[in-house]
User: Fold this.
Amino acid sequence: MQTPIKNRSHRIASYNIRKARGLDGRRDPGRVIDVINGLDADVITLQEADRRMGDRPTSLPKDLIARATDFEMVPLATNDVSLGWHGNAVLVRRGVAVKSFARIPLPGMEPRGAVAVTLVDGPTVIGVHLGLLRSSRRLQLDVLAARTEDTDNVVMIGDMNEWAKTRGFEPLKGRFALHSPGRSFHAARPIAALDRVALSHDLTLDDAGVDQGALAKCASDHLPIWADVGTRPDAYDLHG
Assistant:
């Protein structure tokens, strides 16, 4: 007998923190942490979480995350000093169980990589920071579309670096529904929806938005986005 899956909603957020450097030029990890705490998310993907040079040390001290948030770090780093991989990190709220995680190398003119985290009782969340060139972004989306071809319940979210509304996202057509929660860049005067979310068609977007609070407007050059993601009511559990 097929049992309808309960529509469990998860809040997935994304934030390009620009290495914790705010619009005032100061690096202030505590300010970024306050913004993150205010998102009330289950999963948060971060971009530019690590410095660019050397061993790429994290711009958000790990002990600060442990002390000042209700989040745990997914161990995506390949060394002891970074928070993520290629600057992409993922935080999950304590009590949200992670089934698996992966690093996904991406092609392009500059080093890029995506990170994927699959929840025990939720979707697979892929955090992305796509390249500056549209040709590179298309190649990167080709890889991600192929990687998730046989995967259900996929949320792709992050700084997609695309100013156009639909152009450049052709590799996602037919597999994902692309959503823009709102204009997220530049934080001082948002004019572009660079940060977006794409959902596989077995998921629903129940709500979404951009944090436009005073603190978010000065903590980075991007505003964080969030999306409440659920399962379509016509999805079925074949093991029920």
